[in-house]
TrEMBL record:
GO terms for molecular function: pyridoxal phosphate binding; transaminase activity. It comes from Ancylobacter novellus (strain ATCC 8093 / DSM 506 / JCM 20403 / CCM 1077 / IAM 12100 / NBRC 12443 / NCIMB 10456). GO terms for biological process: polysaccharide biosynthetic process. The lineage of its organism: Bacteria, Pseudomonadati, Pseudomonadota, Alphaproteobacteria, Hyphomicrobiales. Keywords: Aminotransferase, Pyridoxal phosphate, Transferase. CDD domains: AHBA_syn (cd00616). SUPFAM superfamilies: PLP-dependent transferases. Belongs to the DegT/DnrJ/EryC1 family. This is DegT/DnrJ/EryC1/StrS aminotransferase. InterPro entries: DegT/StrS_aminotransferase, PyrdxlP-dep_Trfase, PyrdxlP-dep_Trfase_major, PyrdxlP-dep_Trfase_small. The modification N6-(pyridoxal phosphate)lysine is found at residue 201. The active site is at residue 201. It holds the Pfam family DegT_DnrJ_EryC1.
Amino acid sequence: MNSHVKTDAAPIPFIDVAAQRARLGTRIDDAVARVLNHCRFVNGPEVTELEQKLAAFAGAKHAISCSSGTDALAMILMAWGVKPGDAVFCPSFTFCATAEVVPWVGATAVFVDVLEDTFNMDPRSLEAAIKVAKDKGLTPKVVVPVDLFGQPADMDAIQAIADANGLKVLCDTAQGFGATWNGKRTGSFGDATATSFFPAKPLGCFGDGGAVFTDDDDLVPVLKSVREHGQGVDKYENVRIGMTGRLDTIQAAILLEKLSIFEDEIAARQRVAERYNAALADVCTVPAVDPRATSIWAQYTIRLPHGVRDGLGAALQKEGVPTAVYYRIPMHRQPAYAHFPAAGNGLPVCEKLAGEVISLPMHAYLDEAAQDRVIAAVRRALGA
């Protein structure tokens, strides 16, 4: 690792929420003020409007807003009646929320390896994991493909395996909302989709938030019941176990304004990724996007040989260039999840990637001067 160059320049934001805030300006203030004036802080008109616009954007029949991406995942499992003895298949190279909700309903998470190029669920490993689950006496019930770092999973292969094995498909597009697979937006695949509006996400609110997408008309009233304490005809009749899973109206109002510029931001992210790819492909492994997909670039994640990654992070930090590692520990190695079964080969790709990946600054407001600083710092640190 080469010596770094001292710089007096201001640190580059890893994700620049403030730049987006400045662009929207008084539109955000006015949207919040409207909610403050009408005082319908729960289930206000902005919530209904947002759900309609999210569904239209994703190409789904229904969007049901909720309190977080994690709660979106949980609501779906609860609505489907997933229970003890059921197996839910999750990639191991993901944020913990993907599998966290499975034991909430008493089911068993079964971990699946990922593909080395896209970081997404490996269909062959999924087939192996299904066999493991059956051998353990579990009932294969749900597969949760994750659109990691912004790129959709291989929905063609995963849907075919799900169909052959009678599995529900719960797409986790917390990092991929706005991307496409075969020209269709995420949110329009599988039996249901969960997404997150955490502030760092490409489409984020000013707190926690999420949504469920589905074309299943019968699932919608069940999801809404789960979201509201399992209510029946009114809030004092409880027909199932539920939660408090609502998205508050202020966050809906903020998301409406952000959704109006989202397409433009997606294009800007793509331009940043293209410049990074062109400038860094000779010094590291840059992200690969399946030709059937587009990425939302929630993270721009490169790979370096084992042992080089952490040195790069330290060198860049000294130059005011932040990095992050998603994820140092795969789910099947996490203390809370290590007792759950996995596809039978030890998930070697997840293990390998955990030691190689590092993410560079990525957002829609990263101008070319800042991009060039990142690129130069990476090349310098890698001796290029």
